[in-house]
Target: UDP-N-acetyl-alpha-D-muramoyl-L-alanyl-L-glutamate epimerase
Amino acid sequence: MSNVIQPRLTQVFRFVRSSYADGVAELVYAFDDGEELIERVRFPHAPTLPATHVDAFNAALRLLHLIAGVSYYKAGVPPKIEVSGELLDDSTADLLDALYLHGLAEFAYRNGLDLRGRIAFPRGGHAKPVAGKLGLPQRTLVPIGGGKDSLVAVEAVKSIAGEATAVWIGNSALIAACAERTGLPTLNIQRELAPGLFELNRLGAWNGHIPVTAVNSAILSLAAILYGYDSIAFANERSASVATLEYEGQQVNHQWSKGYAFEQLLSDWLHSHVAADLDYCSLLRPYSELAVTRAFAKLTPYFDVFSSCNRNFKLLGPKPADRWCGQCPKCHFVFLALAPFLPKPRLLSIFGRNLLDDESLAAGFDALLEYQDHKPFECVGEGAEARAALYALSQRPEWQEDALVARFRSEILPQLDVAQLALEPWLEPAGEQRIPARLLPALAVFD
Ligand SMILES: CC(=O)N[C@H]1[C@@H](OP(=O)(O)OP(=O)(O)OC[C@H]2O[C@@H](n3ccc(=O)[nH]c3=O)[C@H](O)[C@@H]2O)O[C@H](CO)[C@@H](O)[C@@H]1O[C@H](C)C(=O)N[C@@H](C)C(=O)N[C@@H](CCC(=O)O)C(=O)O
Ligand SMILES: Nc1ncnc2c1ncn2[C@@H]1O[C@H](COP(=O)(O)OP(=O)(O)OP(=O)(O)O)[C@@H](O)[C@H]1O
Model:
């Protein structure tokens, strides 16, 4: 780097510019007068954009620039944010202030930072006229994450013969195999983080979790306009809206950009700023993790390709030797949440071992139950649904003798109210959702 900076000592984070040409979006950022950080997103076989779609595309590109900046902003968290000398309209600034504050809440908590009052996107700009309809084709982008949730969403859309494409961002071979297995047309978008970020990390930048679903959502909004789709159907369950923990009056949710608050902000913003007929939603929003695992338990053709273990999805460093590392909270939770709905031998063949018969994993399962610990910083269900799943297993002869189930019965269960441990209420849909009318019949897969 020519202008070497100490990221934690910087004063201004700058959104320098964004551009798009020949299928490549360039998103440029800088701290103070430091070197430019350039992220690139590559859209394969990108068609030429009709003139009628250019304004919508530019609005979506601008939002992607603003949202993807979160990876870089977090490296320094300087006191000032500048957007190429511009002022944002209030709804854009509201969306970004909320995303950076709540999406970085885990990052802030774990680094001992308080971002309240620090994040303020420049506001006061005039809003453009509300976007009209573009006449987008009635087809759906279904993002694939390699795990169970998106495969349930795929099968839901297939069940109503909806036209859909399985889309994923990045170069995971595991996700590619899942996408192929869906039998849908596929689309793989590449994303390259600015190499300068890793240099800043070496120089002692702040580091930690970022709201990656928001970044993926913004990339797919751009893709929807570029390739012509009227809907983007994520697979974010109801449980994703529940905070991981509360600290000094602030909710800290590892999965904030998978939650309903973000879904509402983004879907409203896309309707008003990009296209009135572009719907962004989560198809699984009314359902708990347990309702989703019950639906997934019927999808046997995916059992030998899927994995929910996030260690598979690292950009850098080694991947686990097995699809399921067996050590992380995601492996523990998915094992537990599938167990009530699958024959035991089937479950053990997916994971290659019995995680509930391994005493060394007691602390990991305790955290899932919110017993003597808070929920892990991972994409796992609510403590109460983990308790309901383990209670159900503790009543079944084939599971009762396993070390952690037996420990639950003898040590934890006596401290719980059995009336709160039923599995059935978790299988019912509840709460708000924003699923477009034409996709609602797809939810029959949960019946
Ligand atoms: C795969 C994973 O879990 N990564 C998290 C991990 O990063 P690590 O250093 O172990 O490896 P890399 O993922 O290769 O990251 C290298 C560096 O790059 C930074 N970075 C990466 C992606 C990005 O979009 N922006 C970035 O700045 C990263 O900070 C590393 O320095 O630990 C990191 C620190 O806690 C996490 O930031 C990494 O998380 C990734 C962004 C990621 O993709 N995670 C998803 C698996 C994930 O957590 N999904 C959540 C969704 C939450 C949401 O609100 O969207 C979930 O499933 O609950
Ligand atoms: N690389 C990716 N590209 C596109 N979408 C992704 C990617 N990773 C995750 N997603 C999407 O983000 C949402 C949340 O991801 P999440 O990891 O919870 O889902 P999943 O991988 O389908 O299931 P699981 O909870 O079993 O891991 C899902 O809709 C998923 O498809």
Notes: The chain has two domains: 7-282, 307-315+323-427. The chain has 16 helices and eleven strands. The CA atoms of residues 79 and 118 lie 6 Å apart. Residues 71, 193, 201, 207-213, 215, 254-258, 310, 313-316, 379 surround LMILMEGD (ligand 1) (CB under 6 Å).
